[in-house]
Amino acid sequence: MYSFADYILRQFLRATDWNPDAQYSHLTRASSAILDFPPPSSLSLSLSSSPTPSFHSSATLSLLPGLAGSIAYLTSSVGVLRSSSRDVALREFEERFGVGEEVVGRPPEGREVWDRGEKVFEKDYLLYGQLHLPTARLNALYARRLSPTTQLLLSSLTHPRPATRAHPSDVHITYQRDTGRSASEYAYSVADGMWSASALYHFDPVQGRRKGEGKRVDEEVASAGGLKGRFSVGGEVYVSALEKSAGLSTGLRFQTLPGSSSPPTVLAALLSPLTGHLSASYAARVAPDLALASRFDFNLYSYESETCFGGEWALRRRRQSISSTEEQNPVIGIFKARVSTHKQIALQYAGKLEHFLLALGVSADLSTAHRARVGLELQYFSSGSAADAPAVSPLGTEEEEGAVVVPP
């Protein structure tokens, strides 16, 4: 389940028409939503408030195994919170499998405002700070939209004591560019002097052909009874001056088209030639409320391997619509499970309890004794002026089957 700060950041990106799934760093997001979810490992309570649509505060208290907490403040140039934890859709607070959010072929437009009778681009920003107690560790994030196709992210981690190798202070700078057809990202980490550059190119079957032209083999795969979709190809190069090391990786992704007759399916492969790491993942929605995923990791040099399986099941409540004779089934819970050949299992249930968002998780390492963890997370937030918040323009709207339809 997302934290309140993560939820506000995602809503900010949607309101400003920025799609993070177009970047190479999100190449395997579809399968990671099922296979890499972090189940709660402690008893945690989070209370958040938004006195205005653009200012938010949050406090978190964690118990068992240790006492810890945090205080966070967020402010942005655009109001993004429109509801409370009682009314928010559960799918907005949980990372779920889907192909519709990975919109390619359309460059972001950003948010425009009227100034002296003319429409001008608004350079929106978001500022976030979180103080962890009792360690007094400080996290900060600054996001700035530079142009309709570029964005700058500045994040920092600061420790009150002198930085050590185990607990370093760091500043991370990321510059992102998205033209629709391709997306690139350039990052620098001060702590280890790490430079990285990545790019992802999308073959779009709709935008890639002119009227009357035939279908290209590299853009669309369509056959009787088969999948119809698009490919994305990219890579990343990174160099660390402090560690005196370098590396690179390449990736390939195939995903079905939103709104097509093919079931939502995503296949991805990653290869790091220097380290010999190979990863292949597959995720698909096999039923309207059930999505399954698998991933195979293999090292070409050490021959070590791991296989991971997972599933995501949306629980619905049946109710009769007043304005229609068709039944509407709202999602009241999301259950996730994963298991790996390293004898590690994880379970999580996300739902609602009165006005609270609830996440219950269990994780265990069966290879060793007494390594099971149980956690419970409760979140509550309210908006003092939710009715005044502007409507957020999402990248897509979710259908009852779980697929996302992208507006033309």
Describe this structure in words.
By secondary structure, the protein is mainly beta. It contains 2 helices and 25 strands. The strands form 4 sheets. The chain has a 19-stranded mixed β-barrel. A two-stranded antiparallel sheet has the order 4-5. A two-stranded antiparallel ribbon has the order 18-19. Strand 24 (397-398) and strand 25 form a beta hairpin. It is globular and about 55 Å long. 29% of the residues are buried. Mean pLDDT is 81; it is low at 206-224, 323-327 and 386-408.
Key terms:
408 residues, mainly beta, 19-stranded mixed beta barrel, two-stranded antiparallel ribbon, 2 helices, globular
SS field, number of helical segments: 2
Order of SSEs: HHEEEEEEEEEEEEEEEEEEEEEEEEE
The dominant shape is globular
**Strand fraction:** over 45%
Low-confidence segments: 206-224, 323-327, 386-408
Whole-number radius of gyration? 22 Å
Q: Helix coverage percent of residues? A: under 10%
How many β-strands, per DSSP? 25
Which secondary-structure class do the elements indicate?
mainly beta
Q: What is the terminal-to-terminal distance?
A: 30 Å
